[in-house]
Design a protein that fits this description.
Strand content: 5-15%
Strand order of the largest sheet: 3-2-1-8-7-6-5-4
GO molecular function, one term: isomerase activity
Distance between the termini: 13 Å
Structural class: alpha/beta
CATH architecture: Alpha-Beta Barrel
Protein name: Sugar phosphate isomerase/epimerase
Organism: Chimaeribacter arupi
Helix content: 40-55%
Shape: globular
Keywords: Isomerase
Number of helices: 9
Order of helices and strands: EHEHEHEHEHEHHEHEH
Number of domains: 1
CATH topology: TIM Barrel
CATH class: Alpha Beta
CATH superfamily: Divalent-metal-dependent TIM barrel enzymes
């Protein structure tokens, strides 16, 4: 397992500065939450290369329709095709898809919304295959997205889409909200787990909440997981979604990322 970070909690808009920060934290990769409309792919690619950072996935945050009336399947697929191109052109070649659920809010029923999501994922997956881009779907809690809140729901979605190429992202914070057993969720995902995210039950560093990280580490070992582990921390007074606002907060977050990384690495001994 290699340690990476998710970019949005760092609160750094400049991609060069952000990649430098990840390197300074001695992390090997970044799950990049950038917007192709704001930062061109070639710039992201150069910044990562300059600091010897792997982009483990393109994970766009601003991926909801600009207006609810525009939340159609056709527009969703068209937009996500541009994101597939972006993932390809950054040299990363990996894109997350969970934002597609934000385009289903105009559906009359949950069943209609789910059917639209399946169709959209299937269409985007076909295009991604043509472009040589791999796909991930992050299982997020029900406060953040309208659909797919458990690993079982994620696996069922992938089965419905009919793709063995799409893998899941499981996040310790999200699992703590919606999974009856996070350990069982990891075991169920098995070799279809692509990335694992670290943050405690309050979205802060390891040990600040009530998550049993040793049990989850052991579950990852049991399924033979060797992928990226991405640290996605928010400071306790800024949870759940606010990045650092001051230089003091940035230094404190850096220290908490380093501490959590060290704790995670130490779990290998106990596991």
């Amino acid at each position: 397992m290699q340690l990476a970070t998710v970019s949005w909690p760092l609160g750094v808009n400049n991609v060069d500065t952000m990649m430098a920060q990840a390197a300074a934290l001695r992390l090997t990769g970044v799950q990049y939450c950038g917007d192709p409309r704001q930062c061109p792919a070639d710039r992201v690619k150069r910044a990562a290369a300059a600091h010897n950072i792997r982009i483990i996935a393109i994970d766009p945050l601003d991926c909801a329709p600009p207006h609810p009336a525009q939340a159609t399947a056709e527009r969703a697929v068209a937009f996500y095709r541009t994101l597939v191109d972006y993932a390809r052109d950054t040299g990363c070649g990996v894109l997350t898809l969970q934002g597609l659920s934000q385009w289903t809010k105009q559906a009359n029923t949950k069943q209609e919304a789910y059917a639209q999501l399946v169709a959209c994922v299937r269409d985007v997956a076909a295009y991604a295959h043509e472009q040589g881009v791999s796909l991930l779907y992050e299982v997020c809690n029900h406060y953040e997205v309208p659909l797919i809140h458990t690993a079982r729901e994620g696996l069922d979605l992938l089965d419905e889409v009919g793709s063995e190429a799409i893998r899941l992202i499981l996040d310790s914070f999200h699992m703590n909200i919606n999974e009856p057993s996070p350990v069982q969720a990891i075991l169920a995902a098995g070799d279809r787990l692509g990335i694992y995210h670290i943050s405690d039950s309050n979205r802060a560093g390891i040990g600040s909440g009530n998550i049993d990280f040793l049990a989850q580490y052991r579950a990852l070992k049991q399924i033979g997981f060797s992928g990226d582990v991405a640290i996605e921390l928010v400071l306790p007074h800024l949870t759940p979604m606010t990045p650092p606002q001051t230089e003091a907060d940035r230094r404190r977050l850096d220290a908490e990322i380093r501490r959590s990384a060290a704790v995670w690495q130490a779990l290998a001994i106990e596991a």
